[in-house]
Amino acid sequence: MTVALSCAEARDLASDLLDGELSPELERAVDEHVTGCPTCPGLYRALLAVHHELERLRQEEEPGEGGGAA
Amino acid sequence: MLADAAEAEDVVQESALHALRGREGFRSEADVCSWFQRICINTCREVARKRSSEQNRLEAARREELWRDPGYSVDPEAVALALESGERLRGALASLTPDQRLVVVMHDLQGWKAREIAENSGLPLPTVKSHLRRGRQALVTLLAGRA
Q1: What's the total number of domains in chain A?
Q2: If we measure between CA atoms, which residue out of B11, B72, B71 comes closest to residue B45?
Q3: Burial B24-42 (b: 16+ CB within 10 A, else e)
Q4: Given an 8 Å threshold on Cβ–Cβ distance, is A8 in contact with B67?
């Protein structure tokens, strides 16, 4: 059985999902919420777009580096 | 992380002074680069916090409130369009709270891990993760044109 999430919970977890930090169960829960919600899909797609753009800029800045400073 | 290159230079100079003053506290077995990096990060936070206004904090709270509203959404196409302008993205980053900006820049633009940011900034890991979530959400709101 999947965990039922509120919009606020799913929106917070969506950020963790982008970083690959969620358990499979929570990933499923976010996915199910976003699929069935009238408002969250737009926010999720926008978060994804911002994430991809920042990632693109990072790769542009540091060609050949795998990330992780310090 | 900061307003401009001149401010960044000031931070480096200020950090060097901090490092000189605090050199007694440096343990010889520690990595000098990591030690100085921590000083720079904390000086950045200090400078950005001083510059941040009450208005900036109120606007951030308002954006967080929007994301808790189940009826809130944005047009992802509008955000994608805004992302095509580097200026819009820079403006949105500049509108984040100092700690949100620090964490988003270090994590998403410089490739630091959340754990590394926590270790080097003195912020607890859950706080770093919270700033990352709120910062990304705020970027979406700002780029969508609703702040």
Answers
A1: 1
A2: B11
A3: eeeeeeeeeeebbbbbbbb
A4: yes
Asked if A68 lies within 8 A of B112 by C-beta distance, the reply is: yes
| Whether domain B53-147 has CATH 1.10.3470.10 | no
ipTM: 0.86
**Local confidence pLDDT in tens for the 147 residues of chain B:** 776 777 778 778 888 887 887 777 777 666 788 788 788 888 887 877 777 777 888 899 999 999 999 999 999 999 999 999 889 999 999 999 999 999 999 999 999 999 999 998 889 999 999 999 999 999 999 999 854
Residues of chain B contacting residue A47, judged by C-beta atoms under 8 Å apart: 136-137, 140
B90 inside 8 A of chain A by CB: no
Nearest to B107 by CA among A58, A44, A27, A13: A58
What's the domain range around A37?
7-61
Say if A33 falls within a structural domain: yes
Contact flag B73-A42 (C-beta cutoff 8 Å): yes
